[in-house]
Structure formats: C-alpha cells, structure tokens
C-alpha cells in the first residue's frame, strides 16, 4: 500500500472519529434539561473560596456520583431498609416486581449521568442502586409530609439526620432521574432539585415573572445601589407576599418607590439549596428565558443590596432577611454566592428600572436625600423654632397685657 493510500485511510479515520464525537456531544446536549449535571469548574472554585462546600453529601449518596464514598456507607443499610418497607407497603406488588420495573429503565437512567461515573456498573447493579435510592427518597418525602407513616427505625434515623438529609438530597450532583420516582409512585421535573427550583422560583404556576420575558436589556452596565443608598433616594424595601423568588419588582408611588423582594431565611441549609439551584440554572437554563434564571437573578439582586453589615441589618429591619446567622456571616455568605453567578437579563432589567427611577425623579431624590441625612437636625431646628415661637407668643401676650394696663 502506497503512502498516499495510507494518508487517505488516516484522514478517513480522523473524520469518522470527529463525527462520532460530534454525534455523542449533540446527543448529550439534547438531554441537557434532564442530565444529572456535574458542578461547573468555575462555580466549584468560587464556592471553595469561602462557603461550606455544598456539593459533597455528608450523610447519604443518591445516584452513582458519591455511591462508593466510605463515610456514606452507613446510609446504604438505611436505604435497603427503606426499600423493603416501601415495597412491603405497595398493593399487589413485591420487591421483585418493583425491581423489574426499575431494571427496564436502566438504560434510560444510565444515559442521564456522565459516562465515567457509570462505567463500572452492571445493568443489574445500577437498577438495584436506583431501587434503594428511589425508595429512600420517597420514604423521606412521606415522613416529612405526613409527620410519620414510616417504620419506627427509619423515623429515628431520619430525625437524627434530618438537616444533613435535607441538605444532601438537594445537591446537584446527588440526584436521581425523576422517571425512577415516577415509576415507583405511579403518579415532571428532571429530578428532586429541579422540583425545588421550580417551586421556589414560582414558575410552576402559569403567571409569569414581573419583568416581561421578551424585553431585552440594551443599556450599559449600571452602578449598583445598596440597601442604605436606596433608602437615601426614597426607595423602600418591601417583602413580597409570597416566598417565590420571581416576585421581585419596582413600583413607583407618588412620593416614594418600592422594591419588592421575596423574604429569605439565611442559614446553612438554605445556603446549600440556593447554591445548588444556581449551579443547576448555570447548567440547564436556556439563554434568553428569564424564568429559567430566577434564582440567580434573585441572589444577584440581594447581593447587590448588601455591601456592609449595616445593609444586612437594614434588610432584617425590612423583614427581607431572616435567620440566626450574624450580619457579618450573612454578608460573606451571600456575596461569595453571587461572585460566580453570570449576570442575567432579568437582573439587568431591574437595574435599568432603578436607573430610570433615579433619572426621572432627580429633584425629589435630591430633596429626599437632604431630609434623610439631616432629619435629626431638621427636627431639632423645628423644635427650637417651636419653642421660640412659644416664647415670643408669651412675650407678646405679656406686652399686650402691660400696654392695656
């Protein structure tokens, strides 16, 4: 075989390899909404700088990514117990029938994960793992929603590990495809974290976000405004009537403006949930769709409002922030969380609305700023004037009395 023929064979081989790589990438991309994503490296590095790592479970592994970690093996016994009691409670079902149901989904569920993470699992082992994990999650859900209704041994373990469990089952890399839970409960988000994000952002309902989706941000970047600065220019912070993150909006009154924000309890558990929901949006949201970046937009706005501990205190006074974490720790947690979030269109639109408010009401803002910064002095001056007026009135009345005499 000549050199030219060999070069042609190599060229064809390279082209075929590139084609296979492109086909695999396209196939993975077509499932990006339902994939069990890994943390993007940039977000992982940002979290490592100053926030407790929200991507490594401490009590229970769900799915293959953390399945073989030593400190999580105790939970494997618990998951087996949960699966036994769950199957025992099903009408006209037994463990074998439920296992066969999950086994039939093994190929579909395997494709939801990174190839390297599932390479070492046989189909039967994969199905057995998903059976235990799915039954465990449903038992936890039943326990949390009914206040019991699970075996006493499970209830005791759930109760003693409650905070760790609730943190772990909403980690982005610690998820189970929803079709597994659907198959077990016969009753659709991609997984449990996706359900939490949908519920917390408020987009499980038909009503859209306050900011129109088709409106695009066109202006240059804006100078942020802290909570104290907003108070100076006459914009009051008001807690929304719901805890859904989409309910953020700016409303203009006759004299003052109002910025509505969903109230938030800041603690370690909620911090972990927020960071994992932000990571999920970074991996699965569609560019240009505001509702798919709601959690990120909310966190960006919240972080913009707090530059000092005084700002955190202001948000507490306005009943936006709640929780037992101190002002300094709350400030650090929220600022670190927002550092690695890409700017969203919805956040930019809210900043544009703030800028428009400042430009159209510059005179009222100037007056309000003066009153805001000199309020005590103004009150003191008017008090003195009131006293002086009273003295003058008394002197005049005395003078009038003397003249009449």
UniProtKB/TrEMBL annotation:
Q: Which residue stretches belong to region Disordered? A: 203-224
Cite the entry's keywords alphabetically: Membrane, Transmembrane, Transmembrane helix
| Official protein name in the record | DUF247 domain-containing protein
Q: Pfam families, from UniProt?
A: DUF247
Q: Which domain of life is it from?
A: Eukaryota
Which organism is this entry from?
A: Panicum hallii var. hallii
TM ranges are: 378-396
Could you tell me which InterPro entries the record lists for this protein? Answer: DUF247_pln
